[in-house]
Description:
Blueprint: E1 2-3, E2 10-16, E3 22-30, E4 39-44, H1 46-83, E5 89-96, E6 99-106, H2 108-113, E7 121-124, H3 129-143
Antiparallel strand pairs: 1-2, 2-3, 3-4, 5-6, 6-7
Amino acid sequence: xxxxxxxxxxxxxxxxxxxxxxxxxxxxxxxxxxxxxxxxxxxxxxxxxxxxxxxxxxxxxxxxxxxxxxxxxxxxxxxxxxxxxxxxxxxxxxxxxxxxxxxxxxxxxxxxxxxxxxxxxxxxxxxxxxxxxxxxxxxxxxxx
Length: 144
């Protein structure tokens, strides 16, 4: 059993369950004056504890993603400086049923010039990267 610090009459602890697994219980206790007894009310808070843990995990993932994006941005700036390139762009495609979804990543200014702010772009018909997407975007890039 894990016991968290007892503060201001509230105690949260993890309790093993007879059916397996664990349950979190939050106890609120108060001794009435002069009786020597303590009255306590417990409530199940397992869902709230799980939600808090999931939120913390998401914060950690988002923090790692933000760090990764910052590193990628620094690398793009380095490449832009060393290679004299004005625009970086990556194209990702997926086929779903009878349509192709297109995701574009790169400089925001470049994506805006291409008119790809709302993503994904869904195109009817299954398309080939080599025959359809690359020539089309090559032509669009030459125009900006």
